[in-house]
Amino acid sequence: MPVIATITAVTFLLDGSSDLTPSFLEPNTLRTDLDKAISPADSDVRTAALKIVSDLEVAVDRFRAAVEGAADKAILGSTDKSASASSTRAIFNELDRERDRAISAVLDSRDQLVSLLDQETWSRVFDG
Amino acid sequence: MAVTCNASLSRRDFINLAAAACLCCISSCAPFDRSSAISDINSELAAALERIPSDDGSDLVQIAREIEANSTQMIQAHAAFIEEFNRLSANRSVSRAELIAVSDRYDTERRSQRDNLLVLQGQLQAAIPEEYWPEVAEILYEKADIVASGTSLEL
């Protein structure tokens, strides 16, 4: 029933679960597994991988801040009985562009890690 | 009417928790288990709508039920997308193009479901007489605030 909460929940690129399986949508879940999976001897690879994750975290955090801002505006607007569906729709349409950018950042980060990590290391990160 | 937030909870936290509670309504995940409280809001709202005459002859309870059904469908689609995206992106042999296709397909569905929800909310707003709106808005937004802050409605 809470319409704005529903829309906000599905716009965020997170699933709300306690599952800590490594996910590009939850960059913080990648950090520990990368750290464990990459040998200390490969310090350059480790540093590069963690830098990729840090950059992704910045992009995801920026997007989530935008979602929060949009939800804030939508909630305030929705308490006004005269608010129209189109005005709320416009708020979320604007947010769609931010979401596209966040997805691109996720895919860019994944591409970088695909190039950086060999199959064995990749499997240690994502298959446990 | 203004939306108020618990003094100990920033608006940012409120929005995050309300969204998380909404997801948990469907997934029953442990960290933000407020599903019963969300259910309380729905019950309270249904009870309020049952005694409110509509302005335009619309069945308010029916609109509310449609909103609830659409919300559920939307959150389930989201959960399915997240699961698929996580699974595919963890597979090193899956291409960027495949991930874009999955994301684009869900995005089209998400926008359509969102528009449907907003239309239904608009119908509800339009059908509720002006004098009853503060009461409904309070249930919708201020009670959601209580759920988010995990205080009096927490079970």
Order of helices and strands of chain B: HHHHH
Instruction: Report the structural category of chain B.
Output: mainly alpha
The coarse overall form of chain B would be elongated
Strand content of chain B: under 5%
The greatest interface here is: A-B, 50 and 63 residues
How many individual β-strands of chain A?
A: 0
Determine the mean pLDDT of chain B. Answer: 72
Shape of chain A: elongated
Sheet/helix structural class of chain A: mainly alpha
Order of helices and strands of chain A: HHHHH
End-to-end separation of chain A:
39 Å
What percent of residues of chain A adopt helix (DSSP H or I)? over 70%
Query: What is the multimeric organization of the chains shown?
Result: heterodimer
User: Averaged pLDDT of chain A, please?
Assistant: 86
Radius of gyration of chain B: 18 Å
Radius of gyration of chain A, in angstroms, nearest whole number: 18 Å
Approximate strand percentage of chain A: under 5%
Largest sheet of chain A: none
Helix share, percent of chain B: over 70%
Number of helices of chain B: 5
Task: Report how far apart the termini of chain B are.
Answer: 28 Å
